[in-house]
Amino acid sequence: MARRTEAHPDNTPGPFFVDRTCIDCGTCYQFAPGIFVDGGDHARVQAQPVEAAARLRASMALVACPVGSIGTDDKAAIAEATKSFPHPLAETVSFCGYTSDKSFGAWSYLIHRPEGNVLVDSPRAAEPLMKNLEALGGVAMLVLSHRDDVADHEAYHDRFGCERIMHRGDGIPGMERLVDGDAPIELAEDLLLIPTPGHTAGSVCLLHRGFLFTGDHLWWNPDKGRLSASKAYNWHSWAQQLDSLEKLLAFDFTWVLPGHGSIHRASSPAAMRTDLEVAIRVLRSL
User: Domain spans of the chain?
Assistant: First the structure.
């Protein structure tokens, strides 16, 4: 729980604050930009929320924080915030909130499907979230993009009996299904698993009806105004990661939904392909 006595001095005065336990995962300033911003090696409150909708958004960021670094003296919206995840992002896709420190605050997503809901990467095993997932029909499948973002996968399997799917290159004990090779794998008519080795040996992306879930393989960098990937935080092969980015040019999608970094939506698959080509050119020059 955040402590007012440990609050960063660069918070704007008011009820909401970020304390010194912050790990700068980026969740709060991606989810509630304008209220929270990057303070260098930590998040900080830039503007105190005034309107009810903004206070709820700030409270949801508090709930989503993986290490409980956000505090507030205004508790009015906290109960509603705990019930607000999964939070709809678009059509059939929601952000699960309740990020986990085990995955450095990586975002996880829920795909709502009549054939069975899919979790992409694991959120924190928070009881309010699990109850909300039960009300939405449970979880049939848990796709893990790479070894860093598995978090509380066991708790979700135990609760929902979901099939856990992962690439053997990053495979960890207990998975119901480990996939092999570099060729795309059709998990269902609307779910295509695309091996994208590089960030880790077994990194994968998941394509669902124009939504590409990328783990830590690809994300939007708002400061640079383009799609990006990290050479510094590459745990396997940068050259292979660049080749895997090239592979994505063959697929149609308009959304990039990462574990870390910002979400990006393009106006069309062609526009997204152009965005990706620009990113690849820049990244190959590094």
Answer: 4-81, 85-284
